[in-house]
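YM 10:42: Putative transcriptional regulator sequence, as discussed on the call
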Amino acid sequence: MRARDLVSTFPIVSLDTPVIDAARLLAEQDLPGLIVIDDDGLPLNILPGTQVLRLAVPGYCQDDPALARVVDEAHADAFLRSLAGRTVREALPTAPRELPVTDPDATVLEIAALMARTRSPLVAIMDAGHLRGAVTLQALLDRLLAP
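YM 10:58: structure's back
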């Protein structure tokens, strides 16, 4: 089995996409992450849903989870409002890292190794310089675990 057998069209966002719109897209389509493209339409980064949360959750709550418990429920339910006016660019990691991108001929083991190495829930599939879509962790596991 190859990447071409698992690839599906996948939503993309740009660096200037409002991060709240990216969060809505993640939620509405039940996605593990999004492909961030550059001005030429090429994959620039993968934005896992956890990075969106990292931007929204106050740093003091990330550093000390006990502090999250003392925030009243009304304020705790509204923490995503802090994303207003922020862009995907701000949600991406600052340090460069390996981009999880491969070609349609990649085997499932190659895809799995790339996901594991890059800690990415999806891999972008490029064919002849064009983005074909992505293989998600869910699609990979579904196919591998099928009877």
